[in-house]
Amino acid sequence: MPDSIPRAVFFTKGVGKHIHNLQSFEAALRKAGIAQLNLVRVSSIYPPGCKIISHAEGMKRIRPGQITHCVIAEIRCNEPNRLIGAAIGLALPADKHQYGYISEHHGYGQTEKKLGDLVEDMAATMLATTLGIDLDPNSAWDERREVYKSSNLIVRTRNCVQTAEGDKDGLWTTVLSAAVFVP
Questions:
Q1: Half-sphere exposure (CA, 13 Å, Cβ side) for 171?
Q2: How many CB atoms lie within 10 A of CB 129?
Q3: What is the count of structural domains for the chain?
Q4: Cα(34)–Cα(39) distance, rounded to whole angstroms?
Q5: Among 67, 100, 101, 131, which lies 20 to 30 A Cα-Cα from 124?
Q6: Is the separation of the CB atoms in 147 and 68 below 8 Å?
Q7: Chain segment 131-176, per-residue pLDDT in tens
Q8: Within a domain: 1
Q9: Using one digit for the tens of pLDDT, what is the confidence trace for 46-99?
Q10: Which alpha helices (H) appear in the chain, and where do they start and end?
Q11: Residue 40 belongs to a domain with what CATH number?
């Protein structure tokens, strides 16, 4: 069986609007630059040794129609002016031989900053529990972030967030964020 562990990942996001629900999703995929791929949703493990690359570099490694694994968050609505958001978070361990975590979340009424903090916290919390870091689940993200830093076990978090307001005329609006794995 060939090695199916991705060597790299890139992050992307997009917004699409259309009279039809599915076509708004397609428009968001196009805006994100990944509409030409056959996307397979996977769960939350960031492989050891995986490299974060740019969208442009990632697209050089794949061809249209290729089956491509990704962690994707998406949400759609046709309610005028309703704030929607989709976000991906990443937490990387200090030990490059250890796997990291990717989180995804979508929802209503949350700002880009709030969504970004939430998905980073979710990814870091999942990683922290595998590393044996003791956390108070009721503490704020900023307090937990300091615990992660002081432990020297989690070195970096990041996020990719897309928000939009529902189209004022009631068109379907889709937002998505994705971590796309490439060979």
A1: 16
A2: 12
A3: 1
A4: 8
A5: 67
A6: no
A7: 888 777 677 777 777 777 777 777 789 999 999 999 999 999 999 9
A8: no
A9: 999 999 999 999 999 999 999 999 999 999 999 999 999 999 999 999 898 999
A10: 21-32, 55-60, 112-131, 141-151
A11: 3.50.20.10
Q: Which two tokens stand for residue 15?
A: 């917004």
Cβ(16)–Cβ(27) under 8 Å? yes
C-alpha angle with apex 117: 116 to 122, nearest 5 degrees? 100
DSSP secondary structure, 10-30, as one string: EEEEEEEEESSHHHHHHHHHH
- Residue 1 has a pLDDT of 37
| Residues 56, 61, 63, 64, CA torsion sign | negative
pLDDT value of residue 14:
98
Q: Confirm whether 2 is domain-assigned.
A: no
